[in-house]
Design brief:
243 residues; 10 strands; two-stranded antiparallel sheet; alpha/beta; Rossmann fold; 10 helices; 25% strand
Length: 243
């Protein structure tokens, strides 16, 4: 009897020690794999918090993910996870503000947060310096074009629900300046202005287009039609030469 009691107590102690060493349930998802929140310092001295999903095999290609106005970087999490699984490091960023400034020039200047993030990635030894892409949604798409037009380190674009003119931020000239680097234009046919913008932007260089019938805009479109994330991953795998 005493031997049985000692055995039961021993089993309980082992179980309790295992629980003590385990991460709480809320932390497990955060610590899974190489997904983490990272603070990075931009060229202009600003420090921003980004959501990073690191590739397992390095050096790797990388993609910067730029959200819609008023939406957080976490909107990109499903795509970021898929990119990480495809051995592409993904970095989701926030826009500098939750509402647009009245001055279109000031709004267009928000693209510097993208350029700064690209600079951070180029400085990492685990990132291939000329295998960097940017995906943007709505205003994020317009800012991605402006950043890429002036930065040859950005080799591929994916624009979800772009606008020829977003509150004065026009991008047709920037798309032409982007030149023959590849760009994917993705929009819903039920989103008339984004669809028309995509068609006109497609005439500016080496462009591919993908249409959806889902009535939604920007990252909302990706959440309502998750298979589009697969298309974006395949696009970056192909255009950034990921095996």
């Amino acid at each position: 009897m005493r031997r049985a009691i000692r055995h039961i107590l021993l089993v309980m102690l082992v179980a309790l020690s295992g629980l003590a060493g385990a991460a709480p349930a809320g932390q497990f998802g955060f610590l899974r794999g190489s997904n983490r929140n990272v603070s990075i310092r931009l060229d202009d001295g600003r420090t921003i918090s980004v959501l990073m999903y690191e590739a397992n095999q390095k050096p790797a290609a990388a993609v910067v993910l730029v959200p819609m106005l008023g939406r957080p970087k976490e909107d990109w999490q499903p795509l970021a996870e898929r990119l990480g699984d495809a051995n592409i490091t993904a970095v989701a960023i926030d826009l500098p503000g939750q509402s647009a400034p009245a001055d279109p020039g000031e709004l267009a200047a928000w693209h510097t947060v993208i350029s700064g993030t690209v600079g951070y990635l180029v400085g990492r030894p685990d990132v291939r310096p000329y295998a960097i892409g940017v995906a943007g949604a709505s205003l994020g798409a317009n800012l991605a074009v402006i950043a890429a037009a002036a930065d040859p380190r950005i080799r591929s674009l994916a624009l979800v629900s772009p606008s020829l003119d977003y509150r004065g931020v026009r991008i047709e000239a920037a798309m032409k300046q982007y030149g023959d680097r590849p760009a994917l234009l993705l929009a819903s046919l039920k989103d008339p202005y984004a669809a028309r913008s995509a068609r006109e932007l497609a005439a500016t260089g080496v462009r591919e287009m993908q249409w959806s019938e889902t009535p939604a805009h920007g990252t909302v479109l990706l959440s309502r039609e998750p298979d589009l994330n697969r298309s974006l991953v395949e696009w970056f795998r192909r255009t950034l030469a990921v095996n």
